[in-house]
Amino acid sequence: MIKMTYATTVHRDASTVYRKMLGLDDMADYKGWTSAFNPTSTYRGSWEQGAAIQFIGVDAEGKEGGMVSEIATNDPGKFVSIRHLGILKDGKEILEGPEVEGWAGCMEEYTFEETNGTTKVTVAVDVNESYIDYFNDHYPKALELLKEIAEH
């Protein structure tokens, strides 16, 4: 497992960027920036610290897939960390076995640092080595979409 880091600067205050990223006021904001990973991307659950959450997309065959996770930390407007527990496959949670060995326990962390109304968003994510190219391609696109959504 490798920790990868990505960042962008958004010309908005940290609270706004945080709320847009999580889709707290409008789910379309969350779906908009995460569409870089999957055009059907959404979530089911809560961003409350300790809460269960599923990050979901639908594949070409119409089957739900994604990550089964929990919110490890949520300090609104400052820091959010997500602990991935397993996967969602065909709409079913899989929390143990060979399919989840590469993801169970991985962390995804978002830091929001505001300076004079501008926010630096930094993402640190544990990545299975076979997904490095995917993340290097998709995370910068996702952060660019987040920037566009939050600034407008």
Concise account of the structure shown:
The protein is 24% helix and 43% strand. It is an alpha+beta fold and 152 residues long. Strands 1, 2, 3, 4, 5, 6, 7 and 8 form an 8-stranded antiparallel beta sheet that branches.
Per the CATH scheme, the topology name is Alpha-D-Glucose-1,6-Bisphosphate, Chain A, domain 4
| Structural Rg | 15 Å
Distance between the termini: 36 Å
Helix content: 10-25%
Task: Give the total of beta strands.
Answer: 8
Tally of DSSP helical segments:
3
* Beta-strand percent range: 35-45%
Order of helices and strands: EHHEEEEEEEH
Q: Major sheet: size, sense and barrel closure?
A: 8 strands, antiparallel
How would you explain this protein's 3D organization?
The protein has about 150 residues and is α+β, with helices and mostly antiparallel strands. It has one domain (about 1-150): Alpha-D-Glucose-1,6-Bisphosphate, Chain A, domain 4. It has 3 helices and 8 strands; from the N terminus they run E-H-H-E-E-E-E-E-E-E-H. The chain has helices spanning about 15-20, 25-35, 130-150; strands at about 1-10, 40-45, 50-60, 65-75, 80-90, 90-95, 105-115, 120-125. A hairpin with a 6-residue loop joins strand 2 and strand 3 (about 50-60). Helix 1 packs across helix 3 (about 130-150) and helix 2 packs antiparallel against helix 3. The longest helix is centred in the last third of the chain and has 20 residues, at about 130-150. It is globular and about 45 Å long. It starts with a strand and ends with a helix.
